[in-house]
Design goal:
Strand order of the largest sheet: 3-2-1-4-5-7-6
Order of helices and strands: HEHEHEEHEHHEE
Distance between the termini: 29 Å
Number of helices: 6
Helix content: 25-40%
Number of domains: 1
Strand content: 15-25%
Number of strands: 7
CATH superfamily: Vaccinia Virus protein VP39
Structural class: alpha/beta
Radius of gyration: 15 Å
């Protein structure tokens, strides 16, 4: 889990890079919104940006005012300039995770901020004393193969929607 400060740093970096790439940010979808740290940061730093959080937890949805929704079955009513999906899909089985990735592509018209721990992460980077290891472990290739249908990997956990008209130089992309 990330702290409020870490999310603020990430959000500031994402919005700054979007500005650099001339991608307007008017709306943010936060999948697995939890405590709503993205919402808090946006309300303070960019109050004109519309925020929508969804979470599969009844408690989190009620407590932090998110829409109660499972990303594998949810259907977005609009597109968002930034979609955030951090540490969510590893809790879903393969079929639901694949559905969720398709939903992310439908929901996103700009940048996707995505992370999910992989098998390589489990074996080399994850601290087992502070991480839930009872998840669906997949390879990075498994995620990339499905994400690349709707997105272009640009690095740092960010993916550009194939629907976005932003122009990137070759070396600004991850591949």
């Amino acid at each position: 889990m990330h702290t409020r400060r870490q999310i603020a740093q990430l959000a500031q970096g994402v919005i700054s890079l979007a500005t650099w790439w001339r991608i307007p940010i008017r709306s943010v979808l936060d999948v697995g919104a939890g405590k709503g740290y993205w919402s808090d940061w946006l309300a303070q730093a960019h109050p004109n940006v519309r925020y929508h959080g969804i979470d599969a937890s009844e408690y989190a949805s009620r407590r932090f005012h998110h829409e109660l929704a499972d990303i594998a079955a949810w259907h977005p009513r609009q597109k968002y300039d930034v979609v955030v999906c951090q540490s969510v899909l590893q809790s879903l089985n393969d079929g639901d995770a694949a559905k969720a990735i398709r939903t992310l592509a439908v929901a996103c018209r700009g940048l996707l901020v995505f992370d999910a721990p992989t098998i390589l992460d489990r074996d080399t980077a994850v601290d087992p004393s502070s991480t839930d290891l009872d998840v669906h472990w997949r390879t990075g290739h498994w995620y990339r193969k499905r994400l690349e249908v709707g997105f272009i990997e640009i690095g740092g956990g960010m993916w550009l929607s194939r629907a976005c008209g932003a122009v990137f130089y070759e070396l600004e992309r991850a591949r």
